[in-house]
Design a protein that fits this description.
Layout (H helix, E strand, L loop, with lengths): L7 H13 L8 H17 L4 H12 L4 H8 L3 H30 L1
Helix pairs in contact: 1-2, 2-5, 3-5, 4-5
């Protein structure tokens, strides 16, 4: 499949670096800005619950592990893992829908 967007998982994994502006020479500032804007649009379009957003923030921005998040939220680590996975899956689905729509418009 043709990829029109950078993988949301890759963006999530580099989100802290992108937001903090700690770049290595192999990455492009403008591309990171574009990726971040697109990601924020996808985040809005994914219609995540407040809990999903909070867990994504704690995991990818605050860089807490799942056990730490579970302790803070007074829940179990498997529950955090499930909520995190569903949130990421919802964001990925937004990207897939966008790609499918854009590819259909090209044909």
């Amino acid at each position: 499949m043709i990829r029109l967007y950078k993988s949301p998982t890759a963006i999530l994994n580099n989100l802290h670096e992108i937001r903090e502006g700690t770049y290595n020479t192999a990455r492009c500032f403008q591309a990171d800005c574009d990726d971040l804007m697109t990601f924020n649009q996808a985040l809005s379009a994914a219609n995540l619950s407040a809990k999903q957003r909070r867990i994504l923030y704690m995991y990818y921005i605050e860089e807490l592990n799942q056990s730490e998040i579970a302790y803070i939220l007074e829940t179990s680590q498997p529950n955090v893992s499930m909520i995190l996975s569903r949130g990421v899956r919802a964001i990925k689905q937004v990207y897939k829908n966008w790609e499918r729509k854009e590819l259909n418009e090209c044909t």
